[in-house]
Every structure is written in structure tokens, then in C-alpha cells.
Give the backbone structure.
Amino acid sequence: MDWQLTPRNRSTLRLTISDWSNPLSGGVDQPIALREARSTFTSREAQLFAALTSQLGSDVTHEVQVTAGRGHRALTPESAALPRAFVQVRSLLPNGAVGTSTVQFGGNRLAPDDSHEWQWQLQQRVTASRGAWVLTAGQDHALTGARTYIAESQSGLFVFPSIDALAQARPDRFTRTVPLDRSSTESRQHVAELGMFTQAEWQPSLSVSVTAGL
């Protein structure tokens, strides 16, 4: 929404919302995988943007922008807290060759995964033009927070060299990832970004433009 407050001041307000899911799309390590080994990806995001543009003079423009956003993304496993398993399947092909495929079943390597993010951003810019020169100065600050939980391979992986080994419950390998120094793999981060900039543009002719900034 744009609103012309006065002849010299214009405001802009924009709200963006997205909500979507991609069923059974995540966490598969092998081309052939059963449904129980898959996970569903979901994403929900919202952003509110507000701006005020002011014409301070015939050659000077001042603009302030404020952005606030939140996001949530998750991988939800079809089968929670189950170890993964790979089994090698060998078959005699019609041409006499032996084909080998690896089938995945059981749990999911990447799920559950849960991520929350939020951000505040403030931008300010002043632009002045005089003849062939355009001068711009401003600032750009952002504060971001994130909380992420990743259960990377914590349920373990059994590898069976054949269907017979699977029937006998005799894997030839088992691996598992566990946290060493704490009981949770959740991370929290807060990042502050502060920036200031200035730029000068000189256009001596229609075909030549020189820009320098800091």
C-alpha cells in the first residue's frame, strides 16, 4: 500500500506471507526409499516492510525503511525415533548381468529439523543531486536471531549387505552420531550487523558514468 501523506512525503507499507509444504520430500539418501524413511518439509514466513520517502528539496531525497520478519522451517519425519537401514539387493537381469541396488527404510537422517528465525532491519538513505553529480549517504543495521534444532544421524544407521543378512538381523556396519558435550543439538544465535555507506556518481556525458563508494 502506498500513501501520499503530503506533496513531499510518501509512505509504503507491504506485508508478505508465505505458507507451504512439500510432503515426503526430505531426508532420502538412496534412490529407492520406503515412505517411512522420508520426511515432510514445511515453511512459514512473514515480513512487514514500512518506508517513508521525503522530498527535502528540489535536489534532496530522504528515505527510511524498517523491516521486521519471522520464519519457521521444519522437517517432520514420517517415522520418528527410528534408526535408518540400508540393504543391498542383488538381482539377475534378463541379459545375464547381476544388478545391485540399495534400498533405504526405517528412519530419517536429517529429521526432525526445526528452525526459527527473526530479523529487524533499519535502513536510511539521503540522496542529493547537483548537475552531473549524485551523492548518496546512509546506514544499514540489522539484528537477527535464530534457534535451530538438528538431529543429524542421531538415531543410527544399520547397513545390511544382503536380504539374507536382513532376515537374520545381522548388519555388517552400524554408525551413530551423538552430541559429546551436551544433551541437545539445539543452537541459538544472535547477530548484529551495523553498516554505513557513502557513494558518489559522476556522469559527464550520456555515455560515461563514474561511481565510487565506501
In short: The mean pLDDT is 88. DSSP finds one helix and 13 strands in the chain. Helices lie at 163-167. The chain has one domain: 2-198.
